[in-house]
Every structure is written in structure tokens, then in C-alpha cells.
């Protein structure tokens, strides 16, 4: 079968709003470590990891063996109506690592479901459907999570079960806060929060949901300490803080295990997904028992935390900690980040190289402006593929290249990917 046959079949049975990367879409058929192979037999260095999900790499023996052990028992599914040893063990680890006191964990299948569960808990706890969210955010594709997504390209419905008020993101290139000196942005963000509470809400707001680093938004983030400054105001009103760690969790930022820790604050609820399953469907929410118990009726997740996915999750988390992948993310991420900044320092088309650890982005603009250049971004994106490197795209205007390689990335692989990326940028600008 040819790739063209598969593409035609895809278009015949799947909706058009499911995008495919590249002018000539790829079918990936194999993977090992940080590399994947397509149907034509070409191998690529993987710097996107299935959208930051293949966190420890492809075909890792310890994870494969843990899943195979569970499969050999003959039990793939029992539902959470029965005790699941792997689920309890993983919940104990996550509760301990979360930094949240007296924590409880509820497992789901995806980040969307995790955020949906967090919103359910917060609105019940506060008996309010008023939510604070952040501009340029992304929290999922379900009815409520679309409602708190501040990026029009991902808001597939204008209908919303929640009453949402929007805060500034602290973005450094555009918007009102970008006009201020860096030292003044946290104070301005706090003033913005107070004004939003006074003018756009009835006072009894349930929660603020925010990403420490905005994933789909192009790895934009506010100043360190912003969450703590926000939380001082939230605490005055009893408003909960939800930290969406779907992309920032598990040490990816290098400097901390969770993105929220850069802010010197502990959230009431924390959502996780993607990397913890390393490709298996696994996600959830962890929070203070007082808050997470705020569900007044029976609720459970048929597949969330099933024996196979939690077997994988335990192996992933053990591997992550045993190999200190957070430290590797910091070390190898610096090679990539510093290398990209040095290589693009004189290029007017590169507005910013940003991010933390192995969560890095390059934003492209028209020279001498901050006007997004999506066409140039697409040329760079395609040139990376031609050079043997897979990366992601994102940003509010589609002008950001995103990189989220597996946390096992080696220094040599980082330099290899860096060289391909720099060549792609230079050749695309020259074209």
C-alpha cells in the first residue's frame, strides 16, 4: 500500500477538521529511542514526541516489559469498581510528588478529561460556574474545556456552559503587558486580575485555570512569580487555583518537576496527562482532599487508570526518577536553547527563542515588526522534515515552531537537531 492510498482513505472517512502535518503527510511505522521511521523507510529525529507525549522515548524496554507483564495476566480492563493495584501505586507516587498536602488523585484518559474533572470539582466546591482563564490558553476539546480556551483557532464552539472572564497572559511580544518593563508586568497582571474580578464577575468565582507555560499557545509564559501574585488575590476571595500541567509536568522544564514551582506557590488542583503514559492513554487531576471530594454524586472513569495504562505510568515515572530526566532536560535543553539563540541572534525574522528545558519555541515575524509570518514558519517546518527532523507548530497566529523532544534526548542528538533546525531557518529565510 502506498502513502497516497492511505491519505485518500483518511480523507474519505475522517473529518476535515482533523489536520495532518506536512504538504505530503507522514505515516510513522516504527520508533526507537528518539527516532521514528516512516512508511517509506526514512528515519527522523523526533523533536515533538507525539505532541510532548512520548516523554521518555520510543520502545523503552522497561516500559514495554511492564505493559507486557500486565497483558500476560489476561486482564486488560476491570473498571474502577474494583481495586487496581497499579492504579493505587501510581496514585501514591503522584500524590507524593505533587507537592499538594493531603492529596487525592482521580485518573482519566486525556488532558481534556483531566481539566474537565478539575472544573467539575472546582465549580462544585465553590457552588459557582464563574471561571477565570488566561488569554492564548488551551485546555482541551470538550464542551467546558473549549469554553476556557483562549485561542480562537481551537475554540470549535461559541457555546459555553461556564461564565468565563479573561486575564492577560503576560506575553512579552504583544498585548498591553508587553509595553511594560519586565519588572512591572507582575504588578500590572495583579491589577488586571483585581479589575476583572470587580467588573466581570459576581464575586463568587470558582477558580482560575492556567498553564505555567502555554502549550498550544506557542510556549508563551508570564514572569516567574506570576501565579503566586495571582494567588494572593485569589485567596482573598476563596478562589481556587488550577495549574494545567498537561505539557509542563514531570520535569520537562528542567528547572522544576512541575511548572507551578517556578512561581513559588502551590495550586489547589493540578492536572496531568501526556508524558506520564508515554503514549498510553493516561491522565488525571490531583488536589487537596477537601477540594477533590467536592463531587455530590457517584462518578467514576470506565477506562481512566486501567491496569495497562497505569502499569505503563508506573514504569514511566520510575524510569523518569531513576534516570533523573529532569536534570537531563535542563542540561540538554540548554544546548538547544542557547544554540538557537546564538544562531538566530542577527535574524530580524526571529522575534524570540523562548521556553524552558526541553520545551522550546521559535517565533517568526516579518522583519522589523512583530507581525506574525506563518508562511515562513511553514517553510521552516517543511525544511526541518526534509532535513530529518520532526517538530511541531503552534502559537496564536500559527507562526511558532515548537520543540518538545523526549526527556532522554542525548547531547549529541540535541546538537544534531540544532544543526538541522538552524539550516532549515537559514535556507527558508534565504528562499
UniProtKB/TrEMBL annotation:
Its cofactor is pyridoxal 5'-phosphate. CDD domains: OAT_like. Its EC number is 2.6.1.44. The keyword Ligase does not apply. Gene3D superfamilies: Aspartate Aminotransferase, domain 1, Type I PLP-dependent aspartate aminotransferase-like (Major domain). Coiled coil: none annotated. InterPro entries: Aminotrans_3, PyrdxlP-dep_Trfase, PyrdxlP-dep_Trfase_major, PyrdxlP-dep_Trfase_small. Belongs to the class-III pyridoxal-phosphate-dependent aminotransferase family. This is alanine--glyoxylate transaminase. It comes from Micromonospora tulbaghiae.
